[in-house]
Design a protein that fits this description.
- The chain is an alpha+beta fold.
- It has two domains: about 90 residues; about 230 residues, BirA Bifunctional Protein, domain 2, CATH 3.30.930.
- Helix content is about 40%, strand content about 20%.
- The protein contains eleven helices and nine strands.
- A hairpin with a 2-residue loop joins strand 6 and strand 7.
- It is elongated and about 110 Å long.
- The chain starts with a helix and ends in a 9-residue tail after the last helix.
- The relative contact order is 0.11.
- The structure holds phenylalanine (PHE).
Length: about 325
């Protein structure tokens, strides 16, 4: 008991006097550590008589918790003092400029894709994706372009294998969607497409399209016009107008080329061609196992680069791929607009 009192007294005095965190750590080890003074006292419990043992044990615990408390206090006191002196000695230069944050900006192509999706989801469209490396059947054959079809010439195709291509358009996703779902179908399919073009100001061998497909018992050409108008307004403002011209795609009949004009566009006074569309060809519906007598619908596809270039007045497609921050950051403020 005497010894315990002595240990406590020394420990408390030394805790008060401790000046650094090392002092406290040292003290903790000396008193509370396995080989420390209290540890020795614990071990001596075995030597005292069984009647006295509980009393001594309780006393040891009491002393131990008082010392722990004193050490904790010392740690807090020293922490504050060490910080104050660090500040006073100028180790922190509070005048140093902060580290600047460089927030990311959405890419112009992403903005356009988002705008198309945002414009058309209120009409019930959801987003679907398809593979970039595609079997010939999904990219051509089922889209009513058999092996020897002359329309294949327009698609300068990268062949990966005898019947495997890098998809030349997002229309493969029309086929894949219809094969796995039953009408009504309303999807948007954005993504990369590939054509054997040399890179110049207006061509790139890799670019992006977004495709729309709507199949239902009664999805008409008038519905198509409504969707296209909604899309034009979403992209080019409330005053945007559309104009349809007859065209040809093997997978749509009739087919149209869609022009838009809007005061929002730099070249706003003239009509600009932005989109291909048409009523899905009955042969395509048959390829995917739909009954053309029961369901019909329309599809449209557009190049995202072209839309971005028109909307933002970009005159060289390569700017979209070079990741020059001076270019890329110009679109930061347009996010969500
Ligand atoms: N896939 C066509 C192209 O790449 C665009 C298109 C899609 C046309 C859907 C009509 C319907 O040129």
């Amino acid at each position: 008991m005497e010894e315990l009192k002595r240990i406590e007294k020394t420990a408390l005095t030394r805790a008060k006097k401790a000046r650094t965190s090392q002092d406290v750590a040292q003290l903790r080890a000396e008193i509370l550590g396995k080989k420390g003074a209290l540890g020795t006292a614990m071990r001596s419990l075995g030597d005292v008589s069984p009647e006295e043992r509980p009393k001594l044990g309780a006393r040891i615990n009491e002393v131990k918790s008082r010392i722990e408390e004193a050490l904790d206090e010392a740690v807090t006191r020293i922490g504050v003092a060490e910080r104050d002196s660090a500040l006073a000695s100028g180790r922190y230069d509070v005048t140093l400029p902060g580290r600047r944050m460089y927030p990311g900006a959405p890419h112009a192509l992403r903005l356009i894709e988002d705008e198309v999706v945002r414009s058309l989801t209120p009409l019930g469209f959801t987003v679907a994706t398809g593979p970039l490396v595609e079997h010939d059947w999904y990219n051509f054959e089922a889209l009513n372009m058999p092996q020897d079809h002359p329309a294949r010439d327009m698609h300068d195709t990268f062949f990966v294998g005898k019947n495997t291509v890098l998809r030349t358009h997002t229309s493969n996703t029309q086929i894949r969607t219809m094969l796995t779902r039953q009408p009504p179908v309303r999807v948007l399919a954005p993504g990369m497409v590939f054509r054997k073009d040399n890179l110049d100001a207006t061509h790139s061998p890799v670019f992006h399209q977004i495709e729309g497909l709507w199949i239902d018992e009664r999805a008409t050409f008038a519905d198509l016009k409504g969707v296209l108008k909604t899309l034009a307004i979403g992209l080019f403002g409330p005053e945007a107008q559309i104009r349809l011209r007859p065209s040809f795609f093997p997978f749509t009949e009739p087919s149209v080329e869609v022009d838009v004009r809007s005061p929002m566009l730099k070249k706003g006074l003239g009509w600009l061609e932005v989109l291909g569309a048409g009523m899905v060809h009955p042969a395509v519906l048959e390829y995917v196992g739909y009954d053309p007598e029961k369901v019909q619908g329309f599809a449209f596809g557009t190049g995202i680069e072209r839309l971005a270039m028109l909307k933002y007045g970009i005159d060289d497609i390569r700017l979209l791929y070079e990741n020059d921050l001076r270019f890329a950051n110009q679109f930061a403020s347009r996010a969500g607009s």
